[in-house]
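Wait, can you check?
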Amino acid sequence: ASAAKILYECAAKQGHLEAQHTLGRYHVRKMEYGKAKEWFDLAAAEGHADSQCELGKLYLYGYGCTPIAT
């Protein structure tokens, strides 16, 4: 893992919302949707609006979770 990813993970585990969101985006780019969902879930639960939006997209398209009915 890169040094930057390690530092983001450290900050995210300590509750830093922007780091959690950034890791979510990182995992989306790598098509690791389950991991992305975990990070977006944490940040979204604390009110991070961008993570709430990204989490909604994952649910809409069924990436890393069961899709919502449309």
About this structure: DSSP finds four helices and no strands in the chain.
